[in-house]
Amino acid sequence: RNLAETMKKVRENMSHIKHKILVMSGKGGVGKSTVAVNLAVALADEGFKTGLIDIDLHGPNVAKMVGLNKKPVVVEDQIIPQELLPNLKVVSLASFVEEDTPVIWRGPMKTSAIYQFLGDVAWGELDFLIIDAPPGTGDEPLTILQTVPDIRPLVVTTPQEVSVLDVGRALKFVESMKKKLLGIVENMSYMVCPHCGGKIELFGKGGGEKLAKEFSATLLGQIPFDPKVVSNSDRGETIITHMRGSIVEKSFRDLVKKI
Ligand code: ADP
């Protein structure tokens, strides 16, 4: 297939999806995948037809976080996403690569893999597509932003100064691509003390707010830190499905209302 045909297929495929959201971050470890996964599950839980796609070849966390276990099925050029919950279909680019194999792909290879991926997954009609991109401003987010014109970037940060600096770079990148930012999500904003119920600001304060002001962006939400998130996500249990009633879950419900 040549490039023009591939792009036509991508456009056709994306035209059946109402809202496309690219989840980005300035650097790794701020909870980008956690936010992408739980946002998608929360949207599906609210009744929206949602797709979740992981294009991170180097650190494929989404599949693990949602307990994706089957190899994707490919039928006549079409990749069939796994239906994980009612309203939620998931596919991970990493599933096409052998587990434990370090991926050494050069830029152009990554780009063409992403084009194919965007064009070939049989989503059907969707309300939302959540795309988890690798951290930073490399080939993958660049390709997606260029290929899907009406995509809205959502940027995840922690309140910490260094994280905020990195995110500033990602936000400038989004601006330079002339994309309309959906907003900023601050993760690990605080922890609720199990003894007194007070707020503990583990990683400083105000990073998300500061960025939102600087870039005239919306601070969409502040997600608290909860140690259970770590062990749950290692078992493929999401915040939305396995931490019902918690403050972290509530913060995702609030986030969905703002999107
Ligand atoms: P990234 O995609 O930015 O690299 P991850 O989503 O993989 O980050 O999160 C990094 C680590 O932090 C994981 O172990 C994850 O479980 C944990 N984590 C993310 N968000 C939270 C949170 N709100 N509370 C507790 N742990 C979190």
Automatic annotation (TrEMBL):
Source domain of life: Bacteria
PROSITE patterns: MRP
Pfam families membership: ParA
Entry binding sites for ATP: 26-33
Organism: Kosmotoga olearia (strain ATCC BAA-1733 / DSM 21960 / TBF 19.5.1)
Protein name listed in UniProt: Iron-sulfur cluster carrier protein
Subunit structure, as described in the record: Homodimer.
GO BP, sorted A to Z: iron-sulfur cluster assembly
GO MF term set: 4 iron, 4 sulfur cluster binding; ATP binding; ATP hydrolysis activity; ATP-dependent FeS chaperone activity; metal ion binding
Main function: Binds and transfers iron-sulfur (Fe-S) clusters to target apoproteins. Can hydrolyze ATP.
Lineage: Bacteria, Thermotogati, Thermotogota, Thermotogae, Kosmotogales
Keyword terms of this UniProt record: ATP-binding, Hydrolase, Iron, Iron-sulfur, Metal-binding, Nucleotide-binding
Keyword Isomerase: no
